[in-house]
């Protein structure tokens, strides 16, 4: 199975400015005028920066298309109808980042930090996306191995990880069947792995021939899909993985999926030939970290995450997009009774705009709780309070940026919108 492009996420500091957001800046709609004005602004904010033009790329410049394309992994967001940023900024030092952000603020431009491979909704380089909905049906298959795996995989010893990856497999006569592949990483040698697997997952019948000894870095190459002895340096090359059109949704499980649910899930998988569903155990260090220690809140009690993935290749096939999107949303809908609830948890690194979004000009903490608490549970409020302190004007804004929450001191009640009293 092909590994997802995003599993090594490398951030780099390409800042993007979306369309001008304040009406008084309309004169900058002329791209050239904006570019000129922006360069003058950087020079006045930070006179020490030599040649600001190397940091600012406007759509009329030859550097712009390839820079914009460089980290777009999802071809859904590389089409001519995708809105483009007004400017691409490539600051390399802290001083250059400061000058760029200050200049965006003065021009009424919002800033998007460029993401690596995990920007599933393209929010770091565009600002709207096409939508659709739909649903599919299912039949029945044998799910015994998956059920046994589900019972133990979240509580295996810390040196053993076993995930389940399912995909449609084409058999003769054009028929598709669900294929389940168990993938495992053990921190030890082959005999140790066989011994642990026979203790915990005897029914998988793992033999020494199923295991391969390799260094940890080689295992990262393996999971990334480089299985032909490539050197570790290929991981630095961000252009080798093929690009696709795709959509991903994600659930967390706080209970194993019952047999009927697993059967239904496996039968959904054959409905779209570009579909795949991965179930990854949490547990281990994930569950041992307190929920409030980091923004990531899905800790103890969250046994698995389930990733519903669909991709479709070839520009000729963009017209099939609605069908594929309908499939992945249908699977997510089917899983509602089995997934975590209150909130139905989601993962910020697998961003999903179906969950909700900020409306430009009206970012509201109360409204954003609907999707923010799915990502961060109780940590969302703390994140919103940090945003209220460090970026109350929302220079950094996107459809799912954290909204600012300013909590007024008791006795200092304010009536301005956006302020709430904590008392
Ligand atoms: C950018 O990507 C699109 C979609 O793959 C492609 O059509 C276009 O030629 C690319 N442009 C550059 C400059 O790489
Ligand atoms: C495998 O690892 C175990 C534990 O580290 C060690 O005792 C054993 O000798 C190793 N076996 C082989 C074949 O290297
Ligand atoms: C496009 O999708 C259709 C239906 O899924 C499929 O039959 C066809 O082979 C695909 N074409 C390309 C170029 O991927």
TrEMBL record:
Belongs to the oxygen-dependent FAD-linked oxidoreductase family. PANTHER family: OS08G0158400 PROTEIN. InterPro entries: BBE, FAD-bd_PCMH-like_sf, FAD-bd_PCMH_sub1, Oxid_FAD_bind_N, Oxy_OxRdtase_FAD_BS. GO terms for molecular function: flavin adenine dinucleotide binding; oxidoreductase activity. Keywords: FAD, Flavoprotein, Glycoprotein, Oxidoreductase, Signal. The lineage of its organism: Eukaryota, Viridiplantae, Streptophyta, Embryophyta, Tracheophyta. Residues 346-403 form the Berberine/berberine-like domain. Residues 1-23 form the signal peptide. PROSITE patterns: OX2_COVAL_FAD. This is Reticuline oxidase-like protein. It comes from the Eukaryota. It holds the Pfam family FAD_binding_4. It comes from Panicum miliaceum. Residues 85-125 form the FAD linked oxidase N-terminal domain.
